[in-house]
Amino acid sequence: MPQPCGLMRLGVFILLTQSWRSSNFLLSLPVHSHKDDARDFWRLTWNTTETTAERLVEKLQTIGGEGLHLHLDLTAEGFVTLTSGKDFLQLEEVPGDSTFVRWEDLAGHLHGNLASYRPDLALDLELAPFLAGRTSTAEVGLFLLVSPTSKLWRFLPLSVRRVWTRLQNFRLHVMVHYPDDWQPSFWRRHLGSSYPALGGIHWCGAVNRFPALNPWLAERRPWDTYFNKVFAMIAIAEHQRYRWILSVDDDVILPPFALMSMLSIGQRADEANCFAALPLTQNGIPATELFATMWMQLEDRMRLFRCFSDCSGHFCNENGSLMTLCRPNGSRQSTSFVEVPDPWNEMEWYRTLSEQFEMRWWKNHPVAMNQTCMLQALEKGLKELPLYWFADFFDSQQLIVDDRFSYPYFANNVFLIRTDKYREVIQHSKCCFRTDEVTMNVLRHEQRSNLCFVRESFGIHPAWGNFGQDIKHSAEEETISWLKRMAAPVFNTLGV
């Protein structure tokens, strides 16, 4: 195996290893810089006890260039040659071409490798930079589930920053599965003085790190990034003793007053026997009509409901995956027909669905199954967004409580739930079909718990994915344009 050669490489090697102690943990990777021969490499060693990955990268940047070449296969999920012991992990060179990694992505790669091969250490190291010198009595873990396809989550710091001046009972945890989403500098820059609200950034792109929560599910779907995030949320919440989890998908935006309401409603939700508390979003299932009644002007609300009642009641089942409305040309075989209420009545609609379909199809609603209605709901929601983004905080904490199961099913793209109850979901014998959403609804029915909506909340979820990523992406870009127009000097700094 080639050894470090040349004064520059040797100097860097000594710089990174001069504080080695047997009690420290060392992660070692084979790399070469832009100045090195591609056939040669040296070992980059991260002493996790002495420095953070981010500070290590800052030191390395004195080498120059735009990044490092890693002699590792960063695309494979299969076998990796490594040497590991109690205090070290050494990843071995992969023959062939190296992979170039930009400086801004290198910290994510370091954490990703550590989480992949030493998950027993990874969580403490992810939390450590955000715990140093801080005391916390936080009761709510705010978890952002980031994917590489959405930019809307970049507006979350603006809500967190404003809420933090009034309420500090929470910590934000960012869940990522790509190195370029590991962005502590982004959060430090845009959270500003509210940076202490950031509780950690966590790698979820490897094999499930917390299989003990449900060994059968973790074994069946070890690389499933969605369940990696769900398992990590619960593990982190229990580790940090958060009583509640507020889970937010990266394509949902909550104005400051709405985020404040969601973070402070936990005790009231417990008293009301709520299985989960949901915000009012313009296409939320089943919150759409509540949002329209609460926030939309009468004329806009009536037009939206007319769109719902004008929808077809024919359903098709494509590839056994998701129930979708049939195309007018009848290109798919119709399997069921549901009478659409006219005038629109969501209670009647959900009752009919629950009588005719098994539970995982109860999510169907014109706002998600009809493109025209979905985009109309977004348009009318965005029309109200400027007013409510800058709204003052509400003092009241009111819930709309469904204690009669009028809404038999809820979508879980944003929700507040007690940590112990969420653990019950993941450990349920029927967990899980595709995601944990169906199991959450199953458990709610079994426990006869209420579904609750936070009255003082307003959220925008631009689009469902039923019509393809192009339409979903376009709807999100339209939402971002609205946000930028509202306060261009602030939003334009976010790089979206």
Concise account of the structure shown:
With 496 residues, the protein is α/β, with parallel strands linked by helices. The chain is 40% helix and 17% strand. Strands 1, 2, 3, 4, 5 and 6 form a 6-stranded mixed sheet that branches. A 5-stranded mixed sheet has the order 9-8-7-10-16, with helices on both faces. A 3-stranded mixed sheet has the order 11-17-15.
Look at the structure and give the CATH class of the largest domain.
Answer: Alpha Beta
Number of domains: 2
Range of strand content: 15-25%
Largest sheet: 6 strands, mixed
Secondary structure: number of strands:
17
**What form results from the Cα inertia axes?**
globular
CATH topology of the largest domain: Spore Coat Polysaccharide Biosynthesis Protein SpsA, Chain A
The CATH architecture of the largest domain: Alpha-Beta Complex
Give the N-terminus to C-terminus distance in angstroms: 44 Å
Keywords: Signal
Please explain how this structure is put together.
The chain is an alpha/beta fold and about 500 residues long. The protein has 2 domains: about 5-115, no CATH class; about 125-285 and about 390-495, Spore Coat Polysaccharide Biosynthesis Protein SpsA, Chain A. It contains 19 helices and 17 strands. Strands 1, 2, 3, 4, 5 and 6 form a 6-stranded mixed sheet that branches. A hairpin with a 3-residue loop joins strand 4 (about 80-85) and strand 5 (about 90). Helix 2 (about 55-60) packs across helix 3 (about 105-115) and helix 3 (about 105-115) crosses helix 4 (about 120-130). Residues about 1-20 have low confidence and may be disordered.
